[in-house]
Amino acid sequence: MKLIAGNSNRPLAEAISAYLNIPLTQSNIKRFSDNEIFVEIMENIRGKDTFFIQSTSYPSNDNLMELLIAIDALRRGSARRITAVIPYFGYARQDRKTGGRTPISAKLVANLITAAGVDRVLTMELHAGQIQGFFDIPVDNLIVAPVFVPQIQEKFNGDKLCIVSPDVGGVVRARALAKRLSADLAIIDKRREKAGVSEVMNVIGEVEGKVCILVDDIVDSGGTLCNAAVALKSNGAKEVHAYVVHGVLSGSAASLISDSPMKTLVVTDTIAATEDVKAVTNINQLSVASLMGEAIRRTFEERSISALFR
Ligand code: R5P
Question: Which of 74, 139, 218, 300 could form a disulfide with 79 if both were Cys (CB 3.0 to 4.6 A apart)?
């Protein structure tokens, strides 16, 4: 097995390498003066089972291009099998036409990755599970529950818990987590009654006096979570916390969150934290390295991955 890291999330790649006790393969990923990307794998990979680790997070286009070029280098280097390990799959939110003459960019990205020559994809908490169907090669879409559940159980032991989906699209994920935690479930229904009038946040479910945990796949601007936290507090929630898989945290998200009624936000390390994010004391990171590392090991050994989630 060979593990190769792209530049998007070196700390996670190193943690996966430590979990597997397999060093990262030496590679040289550099830019030419016109910013073109060049990849050279510095060790023999002929006949090897190769795993290239790269989140297509900010700067998404550069990181995606680096992934495609690395796959090409691995294929031309005669790797036996290439798995693209994409902890955060960028462009996933563009998974359907939102209007006339708009793209389905998630499908285009899937086509590009496939055309570059990967044999399989290993990713985590896709924005929509159906994105697996955009590929005609095997895709393992890991779920975050084994990372979030033990910490929530330990931290909120004895509290009356309510898992909350901040929008209707996230209900399946929130319900699955609520079931594992034997907690209540609530849903925020966002409505804009008229164009130009601010959103009304209807809380569906009983949250009064409960510790509410918002669960989502992505926190980007932070608007969804912060508005949901305000709605929960005004409906009588005792405390509001959030557990989100992918901390995109763009623009002024970090300061928005630190000023919100949300007590803590936990994100995973599928996206490397920026210095701004690290500076916010109520944003903490949980690592998915052992879960991803175990999934890589099982792929290599041709063992079940779904067994990890039973
Ligand atoms: C949307 O469907 C996603 O699940 C997230 O709720 C959304 O991307 C969060 O974005 P933001 O933090 O910008 O509100």
Answer: 74
Out of 3.30.565.10, 3.40.50.2020, 3.40.630.30, 3.30.1490.100, the CATH code matching 145-287 is 3.40.50.2020
What residue segments make up the domains of the chain, in order of their start?
2-143+290-309, 145-287
Pocket test for ligand 1, best of 224, 226, 260 (most atoms within 8 A of CB): 224
Give domain 2-143+290-309's CATH architecture: 3-Layer(aba) Sandwich (3.40)
Which is catalytic among the residues 97, 155, 190, 194? 190
> Could you identify the atom of ligand 1 that is nearest to the CA of residue 227?
14
Our answer to whether residue 233 is catalytic in this structure is no
What pLDDT, on the 0 to 100 scale, is given for residue 199?
A: 78
Distance 224 CA to ligand 1 centre (A): 6
Round to whole Å and give the CA distance between 300 and 140.
13
Q: Ligand 1: residues whose CB is within 6 Å?
A: 93, 166-167, 169-170, 216-224
Against a cut of 0.85, is the pTM above it? yes
Spans of the chain below 70 pLDDT: 192-193, 195-198
Q: What is the pLDDT of residue 196?
A: 65
